[in-house]
Amino acid sequence: MSMNRMGIAAGLVCVLLCGTGRADNIDDLMEKIRQYTDAENYPKALEEVTWLRKEIQTLNTGAITTMLPAKLGEFGGGDAKVESVMGMTSVQKPYTKGRETVNLNLTQMGSGGMGGIAGLGAMAAMMGNSQNAVRILGFTARIQAQGNTSKLTVFLDGATLELRINRAKTGLALKTLAEQLPLKELNTYMRGQK
User: Fold this and answer.
1) Where are the alpha helices (DSSP H) in the chain?
2) Among 121, 137, 146, which residue's Cα sits nearest to residue 178?
C-alpha cells in the first residue's frame, strides 16, 4: 500500500474512532473511500471524504446542540439553527421570556489555526477596557453595549459563545445567564477531549 493510501486510511480511521457515532451512512462512505483508494481513483475518494466530513459534521453539531440547555434562567429555549461555512460552524438558539429574547450564538472555529482567533479575542478583551472584561467559570468574557443592544462574548478554546439581548445595559444579567451554561463541558467536547 502506498504512503498516500496509508495516510488517507489512517486519517479516516482516526475520524471514525474520534467521532461520536457510527451511522450506517458513515460506514457506507468509508467503504466507498476504501474502494476508490484501492483502485487509485483518488479524485472520487476525495469526493467521498467530503461527504464523510459532512456526515460527521452533522453528528458534531447535533452533539453540541444537545448540550445547550432547554431553559436559561426564566427564558425558554427555542429550536437551534446550524450554519457551517469555510470550516466554521455556528449554532444559534433563541431563549425567550415574554417579549424579550436572548440569542445564543456558539461559533466553533474549526481546525487549521482558526481556533487561534478565539484566543486573540480573549487577549483583546483583557487588554481593552478592563471594566468590560469578566471571568465566567474560568473563561475570559467581554461585555459590550451598543445602542439598545447588550452582548456578552465568552472566549472558549477554539470557539466563542455570544449572548445578545435587545436591551441596553444588561451585560451583568447576561453574565448571570452565561454562568448557567455548560461552558466547561462544551469547551472539553469541542477540544476533542470528550
Assistant:
1) 3-18, 24-38, 42-67, 116-127, 171-178, 183-190
2) 137
Share of the chain above pLDDT 90, in %: 55
Give pTM, 2 decimals.
0.73
Domains and CATH numbers, the chain: 3-60 (no CATH), 68-190 (3.30.200)
| Amino acid 43: pLDDT | 95
Mean pLDDT of all residues in 80-96: 90
Alpha helices in 19-139 (DSSP H): 24-38, 42-67, 116-127
| Dihedral, 177, 180, 184, 187 alpha carbons, nearest 10 | -50
Q: How far is CA 130 from CA 108, 127, 135, 155, in A?
A: 26, 7, 11, 15
Given its phi and psi angles, is residue 134 left (phi above 0), alpha (psi -120 to 50 degrees) or beta?
Answer: beta
Do 141 and 125 form a contact (C-beta atoms < 8 A)? Answer: yes
- Using the 8-state DSSP alphabet, how is residue 110 labeled? -
